[in-house]
Amino acid sequence: MSYTIKEVAEMMGVKPSTLRYYDGEGLLPNIKRVNGIRIFDDKDFKWLRILNCLKKTNMPSKKIKEYVELAKLGDETLNDRLSLITEQKGKILNDIKNYHYFLKEIEYKEWYLKEALRLGDEKALLDSLPDKAGFELDKIPETKTKVQNGKY
């Protein structure tokens, strides 16, 4: 089956201009043209998926271009392509680790704000929490009982 650039863009959740940019950068080496119009086939989606993945995981354009150029050369570049993919995987895993850390901070702030609303103001909540300085993550208290005498 064949698809227009608009159809592919909708399927991928990107703008047609993004696909035009990819094509202009040489990142879509096997796309056919009929009367100057880009035509995508089912077989192109495998390539579009990896390209979209690399882009959405913040691989620099220069590295994506390197990957594309290596892929064009075929099997002799398998090790080099594996190195690029492995490097990107490491970056993604590091991002995931960082996002888990940031999620804990956001969850604490969500709890904090809900508790302040429940108690009527921040002062009541702050009076119940231990004072501590530093960059260690704040933790939601284990017990979620009501504040009694300003303490949990």
Describe the protein.
The chain is mainly alpha-helical and about 150 residues long. The protein has two domains: about 1-60, Multidrug-efflux Transporter Regulator, Chain: A, Domain 2; about 95-150, no CATH class. It has six helices and three strands. It has a three-stranded antiparallel β-sheet. Strand 2 (about 30-35) and strand 3 form a beta hairpin. Helix 1 (about 5-10) packs across helix 2 (about 15-25), helix 4 (about 60-75) runs antiparallel to helix 5 and helix 5 packs across helix 6 (about 120-130). The radius of gyration is 25 Å and the shape is elongated.
pLDDT < 50 runs, ≥5 residues:
none
Q: Helix/strand/pairing class, anyone?
A: mainly alpha
Note the beta-strand portion: 5-15%
Question: What number is the mean pLDDT?
Answer: 89
| Strand adjacency order, main sheet | 1-3-2
Helix content: 55-70%
Layout of secondary structure:
Blueprint: E1 2-3, H1 5-12, H2 16-24, E2 32-34, E3 37-41, H3 44-56, H4 61-73, H5 78-119, H6 122-128
